[in-house]
Design a protein that fits this description.
The protein has helices spanning 14-28, 30-34, 90-94, 98-121, 151-162, 174-181; strands spanning 36-40, 45-52, 71-77, 80-89, 139-143, 169-172, 197-199, 202-208, 211-215, 223-227, 233-237, 241-245, 254-266, 274-278. The protein has 282 residues and is of the alpha+beta class. It is flat.
Length: 282
């Protein structure tokens, strides 16, 4: 698959964009990893919010069953556009080898994934969606002082369970993840056995109270997020594009490669998401 040829008009076929951009972004982005990923062709994506379930009850044989209604609202997610632009030599753009094409695609995918994660774990993003830090109603667990044990994580799991959630990922910054990895079972002076458990399915990943610990530079050192995948949605619009243009950099014989995708986030049950606040991450 070439990035540039006389028949393509400088634009990749839709079936080429997925493997080159969508899949790498999904794999690189921690927001996509910890969330339920959905795709839509509509401008908005609607998530149902059940405020109250219909009521069931025991009834005598032959008697009418009481009719109750569920209290349901909607959370509307409107994906915002993320765009990336890179410039490569004409020789690389015209190279027909998959490796050359992958170099360009991977670079764009990494930068887009970085921007997606910054929005997901951040507060507000100009022209983009609000992030977890701006989400009201999340459950807060205060881990006072330096990290010396995993009690706050056990509390986070219990708090989410109390409201019907099941935390499937903890997400921390590299600094906090290192501090957790250095915790020992009987204190730093008496044991070299780490508190974090290995993940048999992925040897390089660690578990906290049986839950995978995901590392993201987009997360601040003052917080760890406990996220239930069933109540965290990453919504991707179907109109992902990758365009190649030769005119803008004509004098240097280079080629511009631009990609755009639209993504939004939805959390229909904020109380199931837990923010572990760290006053000292060292």
């Amino acid at each position: 698959m070439t990035l540039l040829d006389s028949t393509a008009g400088g634009i990749l076929r839709p079936e080429d964009v997925g493997p080159l951009i969508v899949r790498p972004v999904s794999l690189a982005s921690r927001a996509f990893l910890v969330s339920t990923q959905v795709q839509t062709a509509s401008k908005d994506y609607r998530l149902p919010i059940v405020n109250a379930d219909p009521s069931a009850s025991f009834v005598a044989e032959g008697q009418e069953i009481p009719v109750t209604d569920a209290d349901i609202e909607e959370l509307i997610v409107t994906p915002g556009k993320v765009a990336g632009l890179t410039v490569v030599s004409r020789e690389l753009a015209e190279d027909s080898s998959p490796e050359a094409t992958q170099v360009v695609g991977d670079g764009l995918a990494r930068d887009i994934a970085k921007q997606v994660d910054a929005a997901f774990f951040g507060t507000t993003t100009a022209n983009g969606p609000d992030g977890l830090r701006n989400l009201s109603g999340v459950t807060v667990v205060d881990a006072t002082g330096a990290l010396v044990n995993l009690d706050a994580f056990a509390e986070a799991i219990a708090e989410s369970l109390n409201v019907g959630g099941t935390i499937t990922s903890f997400v921390a910054s590299p600094t906090v993840a290192l501090a957790l990895a250095q915790l020992k079972q009987f204190g730093a002076t008496d044991s070299n056995v780490p508190l974090l458990q290995p993940d048999p399915t992925q040897p390089t990943r660690r578990l906290v109270q049986g839950v995978p610990l995901i590392i993201s530079p987009a997360v601040g050192d003052d917080v760890v997020w406990g996220i239930p995948q069933e109540f965290s949605f990453a919504v991707l619009h179907n109109d992902v594009t990758l365009d190649v243009d030769t005119s803008a950099f004509f004098t240097s014989d280079r080629v511009g490669v631009r990609t755009t995708l639209r993504v939004g986030f939805g959390w229909p049950h904020p109380a199931s998401i837990v923010r572990i606040t760290l006053s000292d991450s060292s």
